[in-house]
Amino acid sequence: KGLRILDKGFLNTAVIRSRITYIDGEAGVLRYRGYPIEQLAQKSSHLESAYLLIYGSLPTRDQFKHFESEILRHGVMHSDAEEFFRSFRYDAHPMSMLTSAFAMLGSLYGEANPSLQGQRLYTNGDKQSLATMDRQIYRLIGKATTLAAMAYRVRQGREFVTPPTGLSYTGSFLYQMDHIGEEDYKPNPVLEKALDVLFLIHADHELNASCTTVLQTGSSLVDPYSAIAAGCASLYGPLHGGANEAVIRMLISIGKPENVPAFIEAVKKKEKTLSGFGHRVYKTSDPRSFIVRKTADEVFKVTGRDELLETAMALHDAAMKDEYFVKRKLAPNVDFCGLIYRAMGFPLDFFPVLFAVPRVVGWLAHWRQMMLQEGGVKIWRPRQVYIGSTKRDYVPVDERV
Ligand code: CMC
To answer: In what side-by-side order are the strands of the sheet with 21-24?
Structure first.
């Protein structure tokens, strides 16, 4: 009944009008609110670009000062959360911890819950509603790094660290992860800057699977902590945010560059996936992959070259000239940044967390836009094409064959 067009995987369905991020997948263009990603990566910072993504324009000096201080102030964690983290097993995947932790945060902030405060809590658009929304935005961005650092330290049986004052967003994050007691501990400035650039290029990518999940979940008017937890779960998968972890597992399994041809053949036979290659939207190199390469050069000057780099380059070169990949327009995406994270000493299963933490910004920008969109929020409820049985009558258990 009625015309329904089956669009498996949403290849051609637009679900919202957006002013946030522009991608031209054929030309390899990515812009946040009109600004090219290359300019932002070179001249801006993660938090400045976060402001841009969420509120639509680059902040004035005073606007930025307020935004940054609110976010850093909200990094401090409720002590109840420490018990929560200690309840995980020592070998829990940090993405499982982070996903649950975002949902747990919702339990601490009843003021953010439309089920308790009224359904129009975020859609009113009045001063109070906007201020409540801003507070949740500061909290979620501020606490994302704290939760991630807690997930990192709890597995090592280490005490949690209170966010320091006087450091940048990524500086504070590295401090909370690595601090071992010296009063004047400071993260390496080159690594701090590199992480900031990687955070900035991961901050948003329009309606990817996780952002769509946040919006779909948010469309029921649930609190933003629950919506972000849902997005985090979606990002965890190896086809999305888990790909940076999968890239390194793949490179380790390939081992030496001389094993690359056999791996490529296995991919072509569809026995293996070339993680870090291919994208739903880009049909040429992902513009972020060039920024990743430049950042890798900076980081390797401090850390030394990763031993998997030769294998990664051999794989890249082999794929880029192979008919299978050329025909399907498969090129490197952003996920070879796993090599940088490895060189910086992050554990392998922590890499998706380094994607999720900055992506909180994009999720919130889209969530805020949807809450304030003209005409209000419409619940996201797609239709299906039913191909199951026609009506049949119940058969008692003794009569079934
Ligand atoms: N390795 C081998 N073959 C591939 C790959 C790959 N990485 N990606 C796509 N293909 C093939 C696919 O098998 C299909 O071939 P055929 O036409 O013979 O059936 C063709 O290329 C088209 O691919 P698709 O699966 O229809 O493309 P999609 O848009 O549905 O999937 C993707 C996009 C990113 C899930 C996919 O390219 C992939 O699995 N890549 C590897 C995982 C990865 O790196 N993910 C990170 C994406 S970027 C960061 C992010 O947004 O999370």
So the answer is: 21-24, 29-32, 35-36
Using alpha carbons, list the distances in angstroms from residue 301 to 189, 294, 297, 305, 308. 13, 11, 6, 8, 16
Note if 93 is an active site residue.
no
Give the pLDDT of residue 4: 84
Give the number of other CB atoms < 10 A from CB of residue 66. Answer: 15
CA of 274 to the centre of ligand 1 (A): 8
Using one digit for the tens of pLDDT, what is the confidence trace for 200-257?
999 999 999 999 999 999 999 999 999 999 999 999 998 999 889 899 999 999 999 9
This model of the complex carries an ipTM of 0.95
Structural domains for the chain: 21-239+348-371 (1.10.580.10), 243-343 (1.10.230.10)
Q: What is the per-residue pLDDT across 303-337, written as a single tens digit (0 to 9) for each?
A: 998 889 999 999 999 999 999 999 999 988 888 89
Average pLDDT over residues 71-100: 94
The protein residue whose alpha carbon is closest to atom 39 in ligand 1 is 239
Residue 241 Cβ < 6 Å to ligand 1: yes
Q: Verify whether residue 335 is a known catalytic residue.
A: yes
Give yes or no for residue 293 CB within 6 A of ligand 1.
Answer: no
Residue 373 gets which letter from DSSP?
A: S
